[in-house]
Amino acid sequence: PVNAFDYQILLALNQLADWSPLLTTVVVGIYGDMLKSAIIVALIWWAWFANEGSARQLEARQRIAACLVASLVCIVAIRLCAVALPFRVRPIANPSLGLPFPIVVGSWGNWSAFPSDNAVLFSMLATCLFFISRPLGLIAALDVALLICFPRVFVGVHHPSDVIVGALIGVWLGW
Questions:
Q1: What is the pTM of this model?
Q2: Count of CA atoms in the C-beta half-sphere (13 A) of 46
Q3: What is the C-alpha separation between 2 and 94, in angstroms, rounded?
Q4: What is the pLDDT of residues 44-102, one digit of tens each?
Q5: Surface-to-core class of residue 43, CB atoms within 10 Å of its CB (0-12 exposed, 13-18 middle, 19+ buried)
Q6: Angle formed at CA 118 by CA 147 and CA 122, multiple of 5 degrees
Q7: Which residues of 116-147 are buried (b: 16+ CB within 10 A; e: fewer)?
Q8: Residue 74 and residue 67: Cα distance in Å, rounded?
Q9: What is the spatial distance between Cα 75 and Cα 173, in angstroms, rounded to a whole number?
Q10: How far is CA 160 from CA 42, 47, 68, 136, 156, in A?
């Protein structure tokens, strides 16, 4: 069973998708495009080369290196959590919701939805960027919220609570 919080948001997004086919097309395109991940990579790349030759650059590079190592640990930890926690069916693979979603279930449909590994990883990277540069961190946070997490809920790959908890875990790990 899906909790009322998740269901109400999924229902509202489903109605929004019915109301605006253009928005649906855009969000499905964003969901399927790897450009959203490239934004975070570009921000990390920029932070790596900013302030060339300064002590600030050395500190930024040390933080980026630690962040990249932490991202590997993060991926392993979140996959272990997904296996250890009770299985949660993805909204798109749950016919009892009675909601049509704009994409079809992929081969990952038998993976647990909770927590969202994308939300964990990219929120952790955005948090790391925030400690290097607040403007870069804010841009990364907007990328995570609008281009990574929101589309995953909109298309039914995750419940809202999957991405909220995933993002909180990611921020905590990045901290």
A1: 0.81
A2: 14
A3: 9
A4: 888 888 777 777 887 888 888 888 888 888 888 888 887 888 888 888 888 788 777 77
A5: buried
A6: 70
A7: bbbbbbbbbbbbbbbebbeebbebbbebbbeb
A8: 10
A9: 11
A10: 27, 31, 27, 25, 9
